[in-house]
Amino acid sequence: MPTVLVPAARVDRWVLNFNGRHGATGLGVAGGALTGAASDGSTFTARLPFDEAYDGLPDAAAFAAAAEAPERWGVLLVRKGGFAAARLEGTALVEHKIGQRHVQGRTKAGGQSQQRFSRRRDNQARQAFEAAADHAARILGSSGDLVVITGGDHTAVTEVLADPRLGRLKVVAPWLAVPDPKRAVLDQAVADAQAIRIDVHNA
Fold this sequence. Notes:
- The protein has 203 residues and is of the alpha+beta class.
- The chain is built from five helices and ten strands.
- The strands form two sheets. The chain has a five-stranded antiparallel β-sheet with strand order 1-10-4-3-2.
- A hairpin with a 2-residue loop joins strand 2 and strand 3.
- Helix 3 packs across helix 4.
């Protein structure tokens, strides 16, 4: 079942195109989502961003209008090679920090050499996570119960979020699978976090 990300402004057009490809499509609302069932048996389920539930009319335009970014929210992306933390107000990026850290790759050496490399890699990763936590605490942690979208590497994000200064953050879906965070990656993550997520089942 493919999942597509559709900006709210394009949802109405997406539903019309679905109708054109699969035949007359009836819309409904179920489980906090907008659903569609076409005459050829194909279906879709569209969900609002930030784990918000939809309980309005079974109408694409009304559904899209309900997709609003929180007044204050954040993004936290972490991988062993770097991190990005950003705080937003609505759609506006207020503050962000992107950092790269070198973490040594695996070695084919064996014995004591391998153990040394492993310890060094673990130390580098820990330092990278500590740096990410410091910046995340400064940008996100001081904002109270902030809604945050996370992504990158699950283990790395878990390590950073274990910092007590980030304990009040409210992590919500979706999880964003991203490469090492750079500015372009962060910008795309911010856009993806605000998009409508549509699960499609083609008959």
